[in-house]
Design the sequence.
């Protein structure tokens, strides 16, 4: 038996995940790697909520370890780990986990009422009276004398479940203890769903306490506890319940100087175009609405750093990593988080500086400025994502936190990544600049770009305008990202004058 903190609380509410029979804490993990407790931890609406995963003995050889023993273990772990101190506890329970939670509430009802606790109960395919799964496994449960499985079998003789059902309904109806809840039921049987129409937990058994249960489409008894993304029905309904316990600030209307993203990677040129006048004339920095995915990666990295500090805990993601490697890793993560925080803080001001610095382009076409601003947002977001998930490769953090969908993409060299980001149809290269507009770089700075545009820029004559897009679309945004990271407040008067000391291919050959 153990309890694992995914995140310690910074407020009055704690969410407790409890798995089902013949399972463990990994029952919440989808085959794509998504882990429901981590998914909740990454949801910025509930950043102050504690998240706790309780695991108990329930293997085939758990023998005479009864449901009552599990309830006692839950009570003890919650007390020792400080969960019981929270005024608001929301249980997320799969299968038998819901029976454990209900039994705990019934047994401790007087104490909970006296302490004025507020309870949430999110039941995921949790039987109130019987389970077809337990019926199917009854020969094995008898063979191994598995008392938990035997307690879940159907039939009028199952007095234990019938009494618990009656006691819990009486507690609900008394209204002396605030209990809010929701119930989910599966859609299909685990095996041969096209032939066997019965579910493991029937709707009448899995939806008795909180109104009409929700049947999750195409789910079975196991997949129902493993949402693959935050947009899934299960997570959305959990959020709906949590909002009854954890006040969520209302999202204010998007203002006209709000800079947004068209997807999880790209700055939105339309919102940038609409914000140009405000950015040029107003003294207030814009609001940047960062992609939810990016913010979740940053939160995962912060959680990983906390896991490093608790590496002696056997449940830590870094328990199998050597101490020297951990010291280096923690130092690198702290440096990256400092860089990330600086970029988040300074990017709005640098967005305004970019627009004001490109004043000369407005006489040509303001679309140029909007494009440069959108590209600046895209590059800032790339820096945040790359800096974050680069560190999620160590130890078991790779399995839990690393976004597999970006694995191949993020591992490429920067010029190849941005080539895909911006759909550039030319060979990429590096250009070492000693000057850009009126900014000089004595040591030189390397900027990436499409080869033909870099060549054209290098051949230009002084004061002759360049009609290729490299400087305005890519070089200026790149430089502004550097300014955002360093925290500069300088506003440059951008034009297309560049001084290129050398240009080289990605293979290192000068041209």
Sequence:
């Amino acid at each position: 038996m153990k309890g694992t903190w995914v995140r310690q609380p910074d407020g009055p509410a704690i969410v407790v995940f409890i798995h089902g029979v013949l399972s463990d804490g990994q029952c919440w993990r989808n085959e794509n790697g998504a882990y429901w407790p981590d998914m909740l931890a990454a949801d910025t609406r509930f950043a102050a909520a504690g998240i706790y995963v309780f695991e108990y003995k329930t293997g085939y050889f758990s023998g005479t370890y009864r449901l009552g023993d599990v309830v006692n273990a839950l009570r003890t772990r919650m007390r020792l780990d400080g969960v019981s101190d929270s005024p608001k506890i929301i249980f997320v329970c799969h299968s038998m986990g819901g029976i454990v939670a209900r039994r705990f509430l019934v047994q401790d009802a007087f104490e909970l009422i006296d302490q004025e606790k507020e309870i949430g109960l999110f039941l995921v395919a949790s039987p109130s009276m019987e389970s077809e799964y337990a019926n199917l496994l009854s020969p094995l449960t008898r063979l191994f004398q598995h008392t938990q499985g035997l307690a879940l079998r159907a039939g009028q003789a199952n007095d234990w479940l019938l009494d618990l059902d009656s006691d819990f309904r009486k507690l609900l109806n008394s209204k002396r203890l605030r209990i809010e809840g929701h119930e989910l039921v599966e859609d299909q049987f685990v095996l041969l769903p096209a032939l066997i129409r019965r579910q493991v937990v029937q709707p009448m058994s899995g939806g008795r306490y909180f109104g009409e249960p929700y049947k999750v489409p195409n789910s079975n008894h196991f997949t129902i506890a493993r949402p693959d993304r935050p947009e899934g029905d299960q997570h959305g309904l959990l959020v709906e319940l949590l909002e009854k316990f954890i006040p969520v600030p209302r999202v204010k209307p998007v203002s006209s100087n709000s800079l947004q993203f068209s997807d999880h990677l790209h700055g939105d040129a339309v919102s940038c175009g609409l914000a140009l006048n405000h950015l040029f004339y107003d003294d207030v920095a814009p609001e940047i609405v960062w992609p939810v995915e990016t913010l979740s990666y940053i939160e995962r990295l912060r959680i990983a750093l906390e896991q490093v500090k608790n590496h002696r805990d056997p449940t830590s993601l870094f328990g199998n990593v050597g101490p020297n490697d951990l010291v280096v890793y923690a130092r690198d993560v702290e440096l990256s988080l400092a860089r990330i925080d600086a970029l988040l803080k300074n990017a709005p001001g640098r967005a305004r500086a970019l627009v004001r610095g490109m004043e000369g382009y407005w006489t040509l076409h303001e679309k140029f400025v909007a494009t440069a601003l959108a590209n600046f947002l895209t590059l800032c977001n790339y820096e945040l994502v790359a800096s974050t998930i680069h560190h999620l490769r160590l130890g078991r953090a790779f399995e839990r936190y690393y976004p597999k969908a970006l694995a191949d993409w993020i591992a490429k060299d920067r010029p190849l990544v941005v080539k895909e980001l911006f759909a550039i149809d030319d060979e990429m290269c590096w250009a070492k600049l000693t000057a850009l507009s009126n900014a000089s770089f004595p040591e030189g700075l390397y900027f990436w770009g499409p080869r033909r545009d870099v060549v054209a820029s290098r051949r230009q004559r002084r004061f002759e305008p360049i009609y290729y897009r490299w400087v305005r679309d890519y070089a200026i945004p790149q430089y502004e990202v550097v300014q955002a990271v360093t925290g500069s407040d300088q506003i440059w008067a951008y034009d297309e004058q560049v001084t290129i000391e050398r240009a080289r291919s990605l293979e290192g050959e000068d041209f």
Remarks:
- Confidence is low (pLDDT under 50) at residues 131-157, 190-206.
